[in-house]
Design goal:
- By secondary structure, this protein is an all-alpha fold.
- It has one domain.
- It contains twelve helices and no strands.
- α1 crosses α11 (187-215), α2 runs antiparallel to α3 and α5 runs antiparallel to α9 (161-167).
- The radius of gyration is 19 Å and the shape is globular.
- The two termini are 22 Å apart.
Length: 257
């Protein structure tokens, strides 16, 4: 296993590759993403252990979605077991990745308390509207920027870590290390990928939504609801498939869409 350095243009192609994979089997990939979110939401509402349990299974479920994208590209069968099958690959390491990510995120939120006295952390961890309302007037700009900057190296370490642990059987430390190095080697491609996400999933849909609301102001709720459904059924599966595209390019997998 060896990470490759790809051109910045590759980052622009990952989203297009994700769409090409999605187009091969839209119903099943959309269904698996919906089941993924349903599983995470269901676990989150469990008392006491909900958020922790959800964090533990997210790496394994992410591997399941990556496996689904790979199977679709290869023309192999995909079903619900494909999604949950990711939880059985190097399970202990995947669970450790989920737990450690939660700890790292909470630690960063805790550090942001130095800036705002804990307002952002209380808002993010609030369990109901009343708790959010108590701090919603606070200025979150500076602490949010701090959290974003601090999360970048965390995201780099975790980007490929689940699939490296599951498919390459790497240990926790090696999976995090190789993921971080691979992202660092290809930071230009990831900047391009981030720009493509911003345009395709943010600016373009936002502009189209604004135009439609100007043309049909009386149907604002219907149009907004339709956009949310389309983003859930099309946008999210394409983005998850693009994660696989980034792995395939950087780690030298030979399948070409």
């Amino acid at each position: 296993m060896r990470a490759q350095t790809v051109t910045p243009a590759a980052g622009w192609r990952w989203l297009a590759t994700g769409f090409a994979i999605f187009r091969r089997n839209p119903p099943i990939l959309s269904l698996l993403v919906m089941i993924y979110w349903f599983t995470v939401v269901f676990l989150n509402i469990l008392p006491l252990i909900g958020a922790f349990a959800a964090s533990l299974v997210i790496p394994g479920l992410s591997v399941g979605l990556m496996q689904a994208a790979r199977n679709i590209e290869r023309g192999q069968p995909v079903n619900i077991q494909t999604l949950y099958g990711g939880l059985r690959e190097n399970t202990r390491t995947l669970l450790a990745l989920g737990a450690l990510y939660l700890v790292a995120t909470l630690a960063i939120l805790g550090l942001s308390s130095i800036i705002d006295g804990g307002d952002l952390m209380r808002y993010m961890l609030a369990s109901n509207r009343a708790e959010r309302a108590a701090v919603e007037d606070a200025n979150f700009t500076l602490p949010a920027l701090f959290v974003l900057v601090m999360l970048i190296p965390v995201l780099m370490a975790w980007w490929f870590a689940p699939v490296l642990a599951a498919w390459h059987r790497l240990t926790l430390g090696r999976a995090l290390f190789f993921s971080f190095v691979a992202c660092l080697m290809n930071w230009r491609a990831f900047v391009a990928y981030g720009a493509s996400l911003l345009i395709a999933a943010g600016l373009a849909p936002g502009l189209l939504l604004a135009v439609l609301l100007l043309i049909f102001p009386g149907a604002a709720s219907v149009i907004s609801g339709l956009f949310m459904v389309l983003m859930a059924l099309i946008g999210a599966p394409v983005i998850f498939a693009s994660f696989y595209a980034s792995y395939r390019d950087i780690f030298g997998i030979s399948e070409i869409v």
